[in-house]
Amino acid sequence: MKKMLLALMVTGLLALSGCVPSQTQDEKITVITSLFPQYDFVRQIAQDKVNVRLLLPAGTEPHSFEPTPLDIVSIGNADIFIFTNELMEPWIVRVIENVKSDNLLIVDSSVGIELIDHFHEEDHEDEDDHEDEDEDHDELDPHIWLDPLNAKVMAQNILEALISVDPDNAVFYQNNANKLFEQLDELKAEYDEIFSDPTHKTIIYGGHFAFGYLAHRYGLEILSPYTGFSPNAEPTPQAIIELIERMKEADIKTIYYQELIDPKTARVIAEQTGAKMVLLHGAHNVTTQELQAGATYISIMRENAQKLLQGFKNE
Ligand SMILES: [Zn+2]
């Protein structure tokens, strides 16, 4: 208490004498990110040079998230706001309209990454087929970060944003980013190794369609009773029954489930098939416990790799 009083007095005296140091000179820059991967990359690259905050409260499922008016005020007061892409955070349009700040840099972390529509990939070759053009946009996959090479592009975008706002620390940021890039290369090598085995191609996933970019890179078949990207759209009983039959036929013993929502669909399938339920973490966001235990994007993705490998070994 004494210290606080003293601090108040000093501030008061400085204010009186007109010697208040310019606040922007000494204060760290503030970075706010929407999802966990960006938050983690800022932590790795900027470390103690910035104040970084994850907009989503720990444990919050991101697809149904909407920023509060207070969140929009916080974003307006930040120096950098990093979002995933307009499909993952459709509310970004409203944020850009409502934020009143000339100093804020808004960063789309997906710049340089081609968004993919996994459901109509072949259709694109057929130029005459314009029937479901509107639908196509809705089905572009927002989960870009689940491919380690996309994650590298995102980290590069974040690095450039940090350097442009805080050029004094450019060398520090670049050195840390280089270490992160190396780790992401190692992560990719780990996935390359697992999926180089041609029998490692089918994953049964009892969650929404989140791993499409990984599937695209390695030619995987991800079977899920969910048909889209929204965890809120419940699968049909028919889709669940078909998946159960497929698993029984192929004697598949692992059903993966997603983080942060009750895995009731995966549980039903596990009960019907005797398959083991294993978390395949989409890394959208983490729980408070995971955060405290030091989870990083890399640690989550490496754990996923080991679980996939284990699942393939059991088949
Ligand atoms: Zn998702």
Structure overview:
With 315 residues, the chain is α/β, with parallel strands linked by helices. The protein folds into 2 domains: 20-116 and 136-189, Nitrogenase molybdenum iron protein domain (Rossmann fold), CATH 3.40.50; 190-313, Nitrogenase molybdenum iron protein domain (Rossmann fold, 3-Layer(aba) Sandwich), CATH 3.40.50. The chain is 48% helix and 10% strand. It has a 4-stranded parallel sheet, with helices on both faces. The chain has a two-stranded parallel sheet with strand order 5-6. It is globular and about 60 Å long. The termini are far apart. Mean pLDDT is 88; it is low at 1-23 and 123-136. The structure holds zinc ion (ZN).
The unique ligands bound to this protein are: zinc ion
CATH superfamily label of the largest domain: Nitrogenase molybdenum iron protein domain
CATH topology of the largest domain: Rossmann fold
- The end-to-end span amounts to 63 Å
Report the biggest beta sheet as strand number plus sense, adding barrel if it closes: 4 strands, parallel
Mean pLDDT equals 88
